[in-house]
Design brief:
The complex is a heterodimer of chains A (478) and B (221).
Chain A lengths: L1 E6 L5 E7 L10 H7 L6 E4 L4 E9 L3 H16 L6 E7 L12 E10 H13 L6 E4 H12 L8 E7 L4 E7 L3 E6 L10 H21 L8 E6 L3 H12 L3 E4 L6 E2 L10 H10 L10 H82 L6 H11 L4 E12 L2 E12 L2 H17 L3 E3 L5 E5 L9 E11 L6
Parallel strand pairs in A: 2-13, 3-7, 8-11, 11-12
Antiparallel strand pairs in A: 1-2, 4-6, 5-6, 8-9, 9-10, 14-15, 15-18, 16-18, 17-18
Helix pairs in contact in A: 4-7, 5-6
Chain B lengths: L12 H73 L6 H14 L5 E5 L23 H13 L11 E12 L1 H10 L7 E11 L2 E13 L3
Antiparallel strand pairs in B: 1-2, 2-4, 3-4
The chains are: A alpha+beta (478), B alpha+beta (221).
Chain lengths: 478, 221
């Protein structure tokens, strides 16, 4: 039988098709050819009775030597030549051990006779299919169970009981590996004495639990999981629950598969489990050595061919790419050169315009500066005249440009009266009047001040000689 | 006769062929592909500098278009005012005539006017004949200088913007009120005039006035 599954939603799978394989099949069907196509991952089931498990401990060594050592162990225990055995193994986590065994590694080994493996592989090859892996049914079921029941506590051991239509077996496993498997007896009564048969099955399960305790790793089963036949499994679950204190579950593995027709899924659970295993990386690899080597040779050849192709392709790619790139760059540079010439011509004009603009701005500054109205000198002279008392006389009125547009007024004169007090009072009135003038601002106190007495020739009088300095304010300034 | 042993190494034919092809390929790589890519790398640098140059030129070009338009509208308007305020020639006789006219209109007569012997740079008290405006250059002027040196535009068509100041010495005697009126009417003279100094000294018949008036002329090359 050949089945094809694909990944579905929510950790489920979709059963694409089931193809029965008769012993007399002559040529592969369309579906089988599909399995032989590229990119398809195919696992082939091996008969349970032909593949065995071995839990052992060996000194740590390299993989190839370990395989040879395991072949030696099998040769010693099972007979035949060492090379007759195809072995693969899974290293187990180290346990705390006392004495000389502490340097040994625990292994879970899977082995099969080479002749059986090659025969089975030959069957698939005859149909144009090259399996990626070969595994027994119990291992496929164990992998499926692990995938959907992640172990939550250390040292958990379970007993997975499968009740198929033809095959019935149990697998005792822990979180690391499958520990051992046992076939279960068939119902010889043809379903007539189911109660009796269930009791027999329960006794076998009990026995296997006990055996697990006595085996190499001394495991205590904590859970029994029953799957398969929907009529028989609940009865066995009930019986086991009565007989022991274990946690007993009925696992309906068939519910993991979505189907479009009325296929009875539980009857094909083992092939389906193998098909699911093919979707993921194999745990053990029991491919014949020469197949593995051939695959490696093919991989090496592909690598060499790929390297050669890369080397052969990269030189012309680099050469043509380089030439093409320089060609494109040259075109761009040539075009850019013309643009630069044109741009330089325009910039020459721009430079002239820029200079021209600067000249105009400079000229405008001159226009603005010299077209300003002069301070109102006439108004200032009139204002001063109005504020000047009759007894105050100027000797000099000096208006001078300090800096551009800033003028200073310097007044020199005298205030004359009959006596000094009167002359000075008049001078002070004059000072106050000038201070009130909004056209000028006093810069400092009088730079020169002299009060002198009467002269000898004329009538008696006094005078105050002064020099005053003011800044002339422009129009609106006060 | 002793037969001399000789060694002959025979390589498989396909190994020789593969080796030859690899050597040829390697030679092609070293002689063709590598130089082509090196040239491409060099061109990349050229392209980067060319692009930067183009961007800079483009910026200047756009600025130039905008400035040319502004100049075309602004210059004729400015020229009228500029030429009135700052004639190209000194035109001293016209200015003196204007000053005399203003004095006479205000009842001032006689009036004495003469020109100070030295021209000077406006805004300075340094009296000299040949000052050089390029002595003081700011950053913007330097930028222009770089631009001019790179693209060497024709500057002969550009108008000048430099002025030369001249000083007129005016003296007269008048009544105080007439002096004020005279100062009022100076504003009617169309040229740019600035008063540098005014000294009014009291005399028996009014005030004696001495004035220094600055006037400006466009500097000729």
């Amino acid at each position: 039988m050949a089945v094809k599954v694909s990944l579905g939603e929510n950790e489920s799978y979709r059963l694409e098709w089931i193809e029965p394989l008769g012993a007399d099949i002559e040529s592969p069907t369309r579906r089988l050819r599909e399995l032989g196509g590229p990119g398809t991952s195919v696992f082939q089931l091996l008969p349970n009775e032909e593949v065995s498990l071995l839990i052992t401990a060996l000194p740590a060594m390299k993989r190839k030597q370990m395989v040879a050592a395991l072949q030696g162990v099998l040769h010693r225990e099972k007979g035949g030549q060492q090379e007759e055995w195809v072995v693969d193994y899974l290293p187990l986590p180290e346990r705390v051990q006392a004495g000389p065994r502490k340097l040994r590694s625990d292994l879970s080994a899977l082995f099969v006779r080479r002749i059986v493996l090659e025969h089975q592989y030959g069957l698939a090859k005859g149909l144009g299919i090259r399996p990626k892996g070969l595994l027994p049914g119990y291992l496929a079921l164990d992998q499926l169970y692990r995938r959907h029941h992640p172990v939550t506590s250390d040292d958990e051991v379970w007993n997975l009981v499968y009740l198929g239509q033809d095959d019935k077996f149990l697998c005792v496993a822990d979180e690391h590996c499958l520990l051992f498997t046992r076939p279960l007896p068939a119902d010889l009564s043809g379903g007539v004495a189911q109660g009796e048969y269930v009791e027999r099955l329960a006794a076998e399960v009990e026995r296997s639990n006990f055996f697990a305790q006595q085996a190499e790793r001394s495991m205590q089963v904590q859970r029994i999981v029953v799957c398969g036949d929907p009529d028989l499994a609940p009865a066995l679950v009930e019986k086991l629950a009565e007989m022991s204190d274990f946690e007993v579950q009925n696992w309906r593995a068939e519910e993991l598969f979505a189907i479009d027709d009325d296929t009875v899924v539980w009857e094909h659970l083992i092939p389906l489990a193998a098909a699911v295993a093919a979707l993921f990386a194999p745990v053990y690899n029991l491919l014949p050595q020469e197949v593995q080597e051939k695959k490696q040779r093919v991989a090496r050849r592909y690598a060499v061919a790929a390297t050669g192709a890369f080397g052969a392709a990269v030189v012309p790619i680099l050469l043509l790419g380089g030439l093409w790139t320089t060609h494109i760059q040259s075109l761009y540079l040539s075009e850019a050169r013309e643009q630069i010439e044109e741009g330089e011509r325009r910039v020459e004009e721009a430079a002239t315009s820029y200079l021209h603009d600067r000249v105009l701005r400079s000229r405008q500054e001159s226009v603005d500066r010299y077209s300003r109205e002069l301070p109102d000198f006439a108004g200032l002279l009139r204002d001063i005249a109005v504020r000047t008392p009759a007894t105050v006389v100027y000797s000099t009125l000096d208006v001078r440009e300090e800096t551009a547009g800033v003028y200073r007024l310097i007044l020199q004169g005298e205030s004359i009266a009959k006596d000094g007090t009167r002359a000075h009072e008049t001078f002070l009135e004059f000072l106050v009047a000038l201070t009130d003038c909004r056209r000028i601002r006093e810069i400092k106190e009088p730079t020169y001040l002299e009060i002198s007495g009467a002269g000898e020739d004329g009538p008696p009088h006094s005078r105050v000689l002064f020099t005053l300095e003011y800044e002339i304010l422009s129009g609106g300034e006060t | 006769m002793i037969k001399q042993p000789h060694f002959h190494i025979r390589l498989p034919r396909h190994s020789v062929m593969v080796g030859t092809i690899i050597l040829l390929w390697f030679a092609l790589f070293l002689g063709g592909a590598m130089p082509a890519w090196k040239k491409a790398r060099r061109n990349e640098e050229k392209i980067a500098s060319t692009s930067a140059r183009l961007a800079s030129l483009s910026q200047w070009s756009v600025a130039g278009i905008w400035l040319a338009e502004e100049i075309r509208e602004w210059e004729p308007v400015q020229n009228k005012t500029y030429d009135r305020l700052f004639p190209e020639a000194k035109l001293r006789e016209d200015l003196f005539l204007d000053l005399v006219r203003v004095a006479n209109e205000n009842g001032i007569d006689p009036i004495r006017i003469l020109e100070a012997p030295h021209a000077f740079r406006p805004g300075t008290e340094i009296w000299h004949d040949d000052y050089d405006p390029d002595e003081e250059m700011d950053d913007e002027a330097l930028e222009i200088d770089v631009l001019v040196s790179e693209f060497a535009p024709d500057l002969s068509a550009l108008p000048g913007d430099e002025l030369v100041a001249h000083r007129a010495l005016v003296s007269f005697t008048a009544e105080y009120s007439k002096l004020a009126s005279f100062l009022d009417d100076l504003q009617t003279i169309p040229r740019a005039l600035s008063m540098h100094r005014l000294i009014a000294t009291s005399r028996d018949k009014g005030v004696e006035v001495r004035m220094e008036l600055d006037f400006y002329v466009q500097k000729q090359d």
